[in-house]
Amino acid sequence: MSAVRGLVAALAVAVALVLQVTVFPHLAFEGIVPNLCLLVVVAAALTRGPQFAVVLGFLAGVALDLAPPADHVAGRWALALVVVGWLAGRMRQDVKPTATTVVATVAASSFVGTSIFAISGLVLRDPALGVPDLLRVILVAVVWDVLLTPFVLPLLMRMFHRLEPARTA
After folding, report:
1. Are 144 and 109 contacting, i.e. CB atoms less than 8 angstroms apart?
2. 169 lies in some domain
3. Structural domains in the chain (count)
4. pLDDT given for residue 94 in this prediction
5. With b meaning 16 or more CB within 10 Å and e meaning fewer, what string describes 59-72?
6. Which of 6, 37, 91, 126 lies at 20 to 30 Å from 85 by C-alpha?
């Protein structure tokens, strides 16, 4: 079942990436789009745990780093989504997550992931934005991701859970 789970997770990342780079730029707010790949990683983390989410975060991040119109040093999103997968997976509890904890986890993950991406850009001297601009980008990204959470996370979490239900011990 893990091969099927991996293929479905890769397909979810691919669909999220295509939507993120083709559809959502038309709905961008100040040039900022929601990070659907981050939402897939958070859903995997909350459902399957940190190990699965870290691997999925790396793959989603590399895909996001290499997908056009990427204009940054490759590896920045991979790093950010690996950390997001680990942190969100550590937030996972054995009890069913509530709507409040899911939204809070998405907000924290979006803040951390976008911050890591932004700070790594400052460190690597990627085409620079000023710190005030980066703070605005982080804030808008968090708002976007939280607004999409009720529409995206329940479907993804249900999908990951159906692929391999939690074991009873």
Report:
1. no
2. no
3. 1
4. 57
5. bbbbbbbeeeeeee
6. 126
Taking residues 91-106, report their average pLDDT.
Answer: 81
User: Using CA atoms, how far apart are residues 20 and 34, in angstroms rounded to an integer?
Assistant: 7
Q: Hey, CA dihedral for 99, 37, 19, 2, is it positive or negative?
A: negative
- The overall average pLDDT reported for the chain is 87
Instruction: Residue 41: give its domain's CATH number.
Output: 1.10.1760.20
Amino acid at 74: A
Structural element, H or E, at residue 168? none
Phi-psi region of 98 (alpha: psi -120 to 50; beta: other; left: phi over 0): beta
Examine the pLDDT at 46 and tell me if it is beyond 70: yes
Distance CA 131, CA 129 (A): 7
